[in-house]
Specification:
The complex is a heterodimer of chains A (about 450) and B (about 70). With about 450 residues, chain A is an alpha/beta fold. In chain A, about 60% of the residues are buried. In chain A, the strands form two sheets. Chain A has a five-stranded mixed β-sheet with strand order 6-5-9-7-8, sandwiched between helices. Chain A has a four-stranded parallel β-sheet with strand order 3-2-1-4, sandwiched between helices. In chain A, helix 3 (about 55-70) packs across helix 6 (about 120-135). The longest helix of chain A is centred in the C-terminal third of the chain and has 19 residues, at about 350-370. Chain A folds into three domains: about 25-235, NADH-ubiquinone oxidoreductase 51kDa subunit (Rossmann fold, 3-Layer(aba) Sandwich), CATH 3.40.50; about 245-325, Roll (Ubiquitin-like (UB roll)); about 330-420, de novo design (two linked rop proteins). Chain A has helices spanning about 5-10, 40-45, 55-70, 80-90, 110-120, 120-135, 150-160, 180-190, 220-230, 230-235, 270-275, 310, 330-345, 350-370, 375-385, 395-410, 410-415; strands spanning about 95-100, 140-145, 170, 215, 245-255, 260-265, 285-290, 295, 320-325. Chain B has helices spanning about 20-25, 50-55, and strands spanning about 1-10, 30, 35-40, 65-70. With about 70 residues, chain B is of the alpha+beta class. In chain B, about 20% of the residues lie in helices and about 30% in strands. Chain B is globular, with a radius of gyration of 12 Å. Chain B has a two-stranded antiparallel sheet with strand order 1-4. In chain B, strands 2-3 form a two-stranded antiparallel sheet. Chain B contains two helices and four strands; from the N terminus they run E-H-E-E-H-E. Classes of the chains: A alpha/beta (about 450), B alpha+beta (about 70). The interface of A and B includes residues 350, 353, 357, 385 and 389 of A. The complex binds flavin mononucleotide and iron/sulfur cluster (2 copies). One iron/sulfur cluster binds near residues 178, 195, 196, 391 and 392 of chain A.
Chain lengths: ~450, ~70
């Protein structure tokens, strides 16, 4: 078992593979072993257009429209149209603030950490552009503790050159799964409590210290920095017409070269695995979209496009880009039960159905996986009782993940009930932080 | 445009035990842990009084009647 930061540093070393369509866009083309400084960043991407034109009107009209034409959606998991979010904050009354969400609370995911560790200036450029578009007077970057030092250095480099029209600072993220939920990020900054708050009020109207607040994923903002430089048409040369652009993926599990890669949305799932060296063993299934994601069968998923439309037949979505390859030797039910326990323990402890429901579900599922007496009927009843009943979508995500495990590994249920298991190894595939493993 | 009312619970404020379900049994049932499950959709006109009673009786101010505008 490895910790989240060990995991991040382990896969940081893998070089991204340049693919078709001028990828990678966000990650450096070759791995230099240290972050790209400002000079290297500008040599690679060029200067932002018309820096002198960074007045609110030019930003709000020109660049916002370009981002809308690009069709950029959030890369933090929910795929919400970025232009609509920017417009909502720009229209709200008050002095807005931009919060870069680099929390990446999901232990299996490393894409935001790798992005900030290699191209911190791209993320900062995007955040400062978002500030200009929304009229924000401040940028706060919430970054994984492993990369705050790198971001701090990048900010210092820019400050010395007076590059940015608004103050930019970095705050280490809280190390919890739910800490990356947008209202939890704001609560962490305001009160030091990394747990979600009730909606309403909406963050776009009433967020950090009552100010209109844009909470945007780090990768999303890096795309903003490139759209403003190269335009919507360029952005759309990768991806599909309905889901344009590229996205970062974290590929882990039974692949030869696990790590963070960049792919065009809609790339076949097998090509996504190949970008990480391809399967290292015979596979049983893939987990797509993270710990709120969906188990899909292998090789059935191989030819599907890695996009929301492409994965729809298997009821999966790319979300924040996690792909975990489960080897045939591992037990999908045991993996699902282990992560279910982790998700239950990571409940922020505020909402009854999430606190009691997820705990009951994880315990029952643990019994199922261990071949102890358990009630599947009760398990299913609880899953439907908990779905949609929290202040945030933590229980919904957990339910989605557990249901997909029960469905895909259904044939395993009988085996387990009779004390068998088709898996031949107990080596965990999905990382769960050590302190919480039971 | 008509403004319909929906009953909403703030799950962070709610502590369970279900006083609300006792005064509005048609609108609120309890899950296996004693937390309120609100019937889907807008409050039917005939149950508006029940809904208001539930909001009033909640000691933690966890329930509210919110306007939900629907076309037509
Ligand atoms: C439990 C939970 C955890 C989340 N964790 C993260 C996270 O670590 N990073 C992130 O960017 N978004 C996370 N999100 C999504 C955020 O709430 C929010 O949608 C996102 O930061 C918005 O940015 P985007 O539109 O650029 O994707 C999480 C959501 C939930 C429900
Ligand atoms: S649903 Fe769960 S994780 Fe979300 S705020 Fe409530 S208790 Fe916390
Ligand atoms: S009365 Fe209030 S606190 Fe009690 S269960 Fe109902 S909503 Fe929750």
């Amino acid at each position: 078992m490895i910790t989240a930061s060990e995991h991040a540093s382990r896969i940081r070393g893998a070089p991204p593979i340049a693919g078709p369509g001028g990828l990678p866009r966000l990650l450096p083309g070759s791995f230099a072993g240290r972050p790209l400084g400002l000079a290297g960043h500008l040599a690679r991407h060029g200067e932002l257009p018309a820096a002198e034109g960074q007045d609110a009107r030019a930003c709000a009209t020109g660049w916002l429209a370009e981002i809308e034409r690009a069709g950029l959606t959030g890369r933090g998991g929910a795929a919400f149209p970025t232009a609509r979010k920017l417009a909502a904050v720009a229209a709200a009354a008050g002095r807005p603030v931009v919060v870069v969400n680099g929390t990446e609370g999901e232990p299996a995911s490393a894409k935001d950490k790798v992005l900030m560790a290699t191209e911190p200036h791209l993320v900062i450029d995007g955040a400062v552009l978002a500030a200009c578009i929304t009229g924000a007077t401040e940028v706060i970057i919430v970054a994984g503790p492993a990369v705050t030092g790198i971001v701090e250095e990048a900010i210092a480099e820019r400050r010395a050159l007076r590059r940015d029209p608004v103050p930019v600072r970095v705050v280490p993220a809280a190390d919890r799964f739910v800490a990356g939920e947008a209202s939890a990020v704001v609560n962490w900054l305001a009160n030091g409590r990394p747990v979600p708050t009730p909606v309403p009020p909406r963050l776009a109207q009433h967020g950090l210290h009552g100010r209109p607040t844009l909470v945007q994923n780090a990768e999303t903002l890096a795309h903003v920095a490139l759209i403003v430089r190269h335009g919507a048409a360029w952005f759309r040369t990768a991806g599909t017409p309905a889901e344009p652009g590229s996205m970062l993926v974290t590929v882990i599990g039974a692949v030869r070269a696990p790590g963070v890669r960049e792919v065009g949305i809609g790339t076949p799932v097998s090509t996504v695995l190949d970008a990480a060296g391809g399967p290292a063993q015979r596979l049983r299934a893939l987990l797509i979209g993270g710990y709120f994601g969906t188990w899909v069968p292998w090789p059935e998923a191989a030819d599907l496009p890695f996009s929301a439309a492409g994965l729809a037949p298997l009821r999966a979505v790319p979300a924040a880009g996690l792909v975990a390859a489960l080897p045939a030797a591992a037990c999908g039910l045991a993996e699902t039960a282990r992560v279910a326990r982790y998700l239950a323990d990571e409940s922020a402890g505020q909402c009854g159905p999430c606190v009691f429901g997820l705990d009951a579900i994880a315990t029952e599922l643990g019994r199922v996986a261990a071949g102890r007496p358990a009630s599947l009927a009760l398990l299913r009843r609880w899953l439907s009782q908990v779905d949609g009943r929290g202040a945030c979508r933590h229980p919904d995500g957990a339910v989605r993940f557990i249901r997909s495990g029960l469905e895909l590994f259904g044939p395993e249920l009988d085996l387990h009930a009779r004390g068998w298991c088709s898996g031949t190894t107990d080596d965990p595939v999905l990382p769960v932080p050590r302190r919480l493993t039971r | 445009m008509t403004a319909e009312r929906v009953l909403r619970v703030n799950p962070i404020a709610c502590a369970g035990r279900g006083l609300c379900a006792e005064v509005a049994p048609e609108l609120i049932t309890l899950d296996d842990w004693g937390f309120p499950v609100i019937a889907k959709g807008p409050v039917p006109p005939g149950q508006a009084a029940e809904a208001r009673a539930a909001v009033r009786i909640c000691p933690l101010l966890a329930l509210r009647l919110a306007a939900r505008r629907t076309a037509g």
